[in-house]
Amino acid sequence: MEHNLAELVEGIYHQKTKEYFEEVLSSYEHQNYRSAVVMLYTVVICDLIFKLNDLKDIHNDLKAKKILEDLEADKEDNPVSPDWENNLIEKAFKEAKLLENDVYTHITTLKRYRNLSGHPVLNSIEILHRPNKELVQSLMINMLEGLLTKHPLFTKNVFAPFMVEIERIKNDFSTEERLEIYLESKFLVHFNKEVVEYIFKHLWKIVFKSDGERENKNRNVNYKVLLIIYKRYEETLFEFIKKEIAHFSDFMDENSNILGKFVDFISKYPDVYPLLKEHTRQILTNRIKNKKQLIVKSYFLSDSISTHLRKLDTEFHTTGDFYNQPYAHYHIFEKIEIEFLFNISRRNEALPEFYDLMVSHYYHSGQYNTADYTFDHCISPYFKEFSKEQLEVLLHEANSNPQCYEGRFAKSNHKQLLETAKSLLGDDVEEKYKNLF
Predict the structure, then answer these.
(1) Do the beta carbons of residue 182 and residue 88 sit within 8 Å?
(2) 397-408 confidence digits (pLDDT tens)
(3) How far is the C-alpha of 405 from the C-alpha of 363, rounded, in Å?
């Protein structure tokens, strides 16, 4: 317990509060428990004022500004009255939302013990109350955890200021990495488990379950923030999702933008998919089946990555209608989709099946420009890792498809393969596959 107390003291947010708290600790360590309680209450009052000033000066909080002005007026009207302290606590709780219900209760409890410790009681055997060590320790920890160690933004209604700030800075960062650094420095470093869960739950609702004008306008940045928070607290939030799966199984499946982001999230964190309610998984299957770009990412619907890659080969490739167009695509992989498939294949030891798909995707080209595009993105980056069998299939099928070998850049493209092809298949590849070389 003493070790925990020392850690909490080190985490006090405001430097002046930390300095003042040293007097509380000194009294506590010297067993002057009555003095510790009286000083602890004083430190709490000071910390509330510091936080209100921070909210006013740094975060332009109009409620905090109004409260400070009202308190100053109270003190001027009644200079010797302690009523302003009572008003401070009430206003911090009810108006500024600086205090959660439990923290407000702890402060009012502390105030009662402070009054007992600091004010003589004439009709009592013990004129001054004498608190014990355990009580003082409990009061200190409650104040440290509930108020003194918290950033002023996160002692009030945590979600509202967080979302206002995200909306304000949504165009200020060119990459998600820079956004993550900003969020880490300003917000995440102050989050505890309860705040993380609260923020994530409400952010999930805004991203996946709300369709208002403001939600639509900010959905992209809010989704990025959702991903950043989940990545940082994945273990905690995975357990949280398991406990509240009904909330996290709900999404607006008929909104294509929301559906795309929901599938994207599950594709990044596929362990979440088995947690979803059965009806949600059925809806996902139905919504995905006719959307090619979503099919690419939906490997979580298959038994394995290898199965998913073979499924893509079957669903996206077909035969052509003309002698010079023996093959065709139902869908042409975008560069970002190829990178996605490569990454999940590498993580799941399915690169041979990924290379099979890349070979097939190239030789199924139904147009010259498609062949150039698929060679650049499906063949050129990977062919040196192809097996002998994969390279032979590539050359054989491409040699039979005029769309692959008659294009403007076909010869120069295929010359990239020549050295590797000779080393694996022999020096006669140029003669064997004359259309290519």
Answers:
(1) no
(2) 999 999 999 988
(3) 10
Residue 343 makes CB contacts below 8 A (sequence gap 6+) with none
8 Å CB contact between 319 and 327: yes
Q: Do residues 249 and 280 touch, judged by C-beta distance below 8 A?
A: yes
Distance CA 335, CA 387 (A): 23
Tokens of 116: 């007992």
CA-nearest of 107, 198, 219 to 154 is 198
Model pTM? 0.76
Asked whether the beta carbons of 419 and 383 are under 8 A apart, the reply is no
pLDDT reading at 155 higher than 70: no
Strands 317-322 and 325-329, sheet pairing: antiparallel
Sequence-distant contacts of 6-12: CB under 8 A, at least 24 apart: 8/141, 8/144, 8/145, 8/148, 8/149, 9/144, 11/144, 11/149, 12/144, 12/148, 12/149
Residue 165 three-state SS: helix
Phi-psi region of 255 (alpha: psi -120 to 50; beta: other; left: phi over 0): beta
Percent of the chain scored above 70 by pLDDT?
A: 97
Is residue 389 a contact partner of residue 395, using CB atoms and an 8 Å limit? no
Cα→Cα distances 48→52, 93, 146, Å:
6, 10, 12
